[in-house]
């Protein structure tokens, strides 16, 4: 069976609707941002603008970024310099990963294993074999894996 470009585009267009249909209309997707520098802050603001999300945590190795996250997004935020503390929390549905590139695959794989939906900045991985492993991890977890590709077109 061959898959047409039209079929792929139709499936891609349905993905956000399917993901949102899994959330009660009265609930918000509770998320954390791992890597709250420039890209992480921009991604967080975009997620919050939808009105469908609530930011509950941020992780970054730089304390100054965590302090700024609390100033910008609220003192209620749980902040940590160890992303694994975020992944261990049961009250977080999804994570945004905007760390330096070499951390993307590892953190995304661990987040999926922890039962989180994942939005990861590009590049998703640095080696093809890591990409295969990450896709397998997403399939095995049953969670959503989305890769950012802003400012890129075909």
Model description:
The chain has 154 residues and is an alpha/beta fold. It has a single domain (25-147), classed as Rossmann fold (3-Layer(aba) Sandwich), CATH 3.40.50.720. It has helices at 5-21, 38-49, 63-73, 83-88, 104-113, 128-141, and strands at 29-34, 53-59, 78-80, 94-97, 117-120, 145-147. Strands 3-2-1-4-5-6 form a six-stranded parallel sheet, with helices on both faces. α5 packs parallel to α6. The longest helix is centred in the N-terminal third of the chain and has 17 residues, at 5-21.
Specify the structural class. Answer: alpha/beta
CATH homology superfamily name: NAD(P)-binding Rossmann-like Domain
How large a portion of the residues is in β-strands, by DSSP E?
A: 15-25%
Number of separate structural domains: 1
Topology:
Blueprint: H1 5-21, E1 29-34, H2 38-49, E2 53-59, H3 63-73, E3 78-80, H4 83-88, E4 94-97, H5 104-113, E5 117-120, H6 128-141, E6 145-147
Parallel strand pairs: 1-2, 1-4, 2-3, 4-5, 5-6
Compact overview of the structure:
This protein is of the alpha/beta class and 154 residues long. 45% of the residues lie in helices and 18% in strands.
